[in-house]
Specification:
With 365 residues, the chain is of the alpha/beta class. Helices cover 47% and strands 19% of the residues. The protein folds into 2 domains: 172 residues, Rossmann fold; 184 residues, Dehydroquinate synthase-like, alpha domain. 48% of the residues are buried.
Length: 365
Amino acid sequence: MREMHKVRVELGASSYDIFIGEDLLPEISDFVKAQNFSHKALVISDENVGKIYGERTLAALREAGLEPALHLVPAGEASKSLAVADEIFTHAIELGLDRRSPVFALGGGVVGDLAGFIAAAYMRGVPFVQLPTSLLAQVDSSVGGKVAVNHRLGKNLIGAFYQPAAVFADLATFATLPEREIRTGLGEIIKYGIIFDADFFAALEDHAADALRLSHDAALFMVERSCEIKAEVVAKDEKEGGLRRILNYGHTIAHAIEKETGYARYNHGEAVAIGSLGAAYISEALGMIDDADVLRVRRLTERLGLPLFAEGCTVEGLYAAIFHDKKTVDGKVNWVLMEGIGKVCVRDDVPESIVRTAMARCLRF
């Protein structure tokens, strides 16, 4: 019998399940049959993932009684744009999708964010199902309902909070992931240990080799625990009024790195890994943690094959970029900072000199 785990995201009327296991197409089909969806559906994927999983996904949806169409976008962050969204809106209108027509996101974080944005805006909201195929998407972007596209002045600035009807995290899709895509997921997984669960962080330290090769047991453990942590945080603060801000640990510097390098040199998890170290350096400079905590974060980051430094950036460029981040309010940056492994807080009183020094430690010139 196939092993399948479920994590519930408790959000009242917007609650949903995350299904975690291998070869979940039968579960996807059964789920669709139980819904009150219209027959016409849209599956959004990128050109890489669509070639591998597009047809089998369409077949499962047809078996469930849908008439799905597949829309492919170029792989990469550049597809998270209003221009690409407009093309998809046009396709949806031409297909005759109505207010009960489901949108399926088949792919990584870019596809999930883009498809979720489409679902949230089309006809003021249509059903949305996440089918994440990357480690990063399964542990982070597919859960929690933050959907968006980018603007040339900043990442994820145009979007909404829009929860999916369900998430299907199929571990079998990891078989086709390039090594770099595995590492980028690990960058977000380290974050969960830092912000919420010291035991989880320690388990990653103890089993770093298994995590890096993504053994079945390690993959199941990391995806399930990461989803549990995010589900608990989101259930308490769906729209980022307080607690949910901790999920942004490492992201302020990460988004600046991505912007400064044109969203091309570093993928998201790599940037988060560097940004997480930057936040640790700030925390240490403020006397919130000692150098032993910083060393643990640095060592685990390195053991999991993630970068410790960013190239192609300047401190001046990074510092300017953080003021276009969503976490900046009234000119003050809300920094998520460490109080220890497993515990963080939010502060908006970090001196500019400390930020610039931490950024310099994150760069290789």
